[in-house]
Amino acid sequence: VQLVESGGGSVQPGGSLRLSCKVSGNSYRDYSMAWFRQVADKEREGVAAIESSRSISYARSVQGRFTISLDNAENILYLQMDNLLPADTAMYYCAVKEGVSKPWTVLKSVQYNHWGQGTQVTVS
Fold first, then answer.
1. pLDDT tens digits for 13-63?
2. Of 70, 77, 97, 119, which is most buried with the most CB atoms under 10 A?
3. Where are the beta strands (DSSP E) in the chain?
4. How confident is the model at residue 71, as a pLDDT?
5. Which of 44, 62, 35, 43 shows the shortest CA–CA distance to 123?
6. What pLDDT is recorded for position 27?
7. Which pLDDT does position 26 carry in this prediction?
8. Do 110 and 87 contact (CB within 8 A), yes or no?
9. Chain mean position to CA 44
């Protein structure tokens, strides 16, 4: 499985960005796909996840501002980020794992074994 993120950049507070993650080689019938973010010297944080069951989960810090979606035809995972805050500044990664997850684990980075290279988002 290969994941390639794009769409990061610099934006002012209150602005919007849409991240994309092109997924190739994913033949899993059941899967979880997610966005994580990481700031240097901090633990990787789960932001949003979508599963083959169509279950969607968000971190509380982004609930109501971020929207995760999946284009199955193009195999592209999106993260629409609105009303961005300086606290959203981080490197954003997409990730995939086989199988659906328990609700309390779907945003845990240790669950995922396929990762993209990351795309930087800066809000200032």
1. 999 999 999 999 888 899 999 999 999 889 999 999 999 998 999 999 999
2. 77
3. 2-6, 9-11, 17-24, 31-38, 45-51, 56-58, 66-71, 76-81, 90-98, 114-115, 119-123
4. 95
5. 62
6. 81
7. 80
8. no
9. 11
Residues 123 and 17: beta-carbon distance below 8 Å: no
Question: What one-letter code names the amino acid at 30?
Answer: D
* 83-122 confidence digits (pLDDT tens): 999 999 999 999 999 988 888 889 999 999 999 999 999 9
> Is residue 16 within a helix (H) or strand (E), and if so which, with residue range?
none
Report the C-alpha gap between 91 and 34 in whole angstroms. 14
Closest CA to 21 of 73, 57, 71, 84: 71
Q: How far apart are CA 7 and CA 120, in angstroms?
A: 9
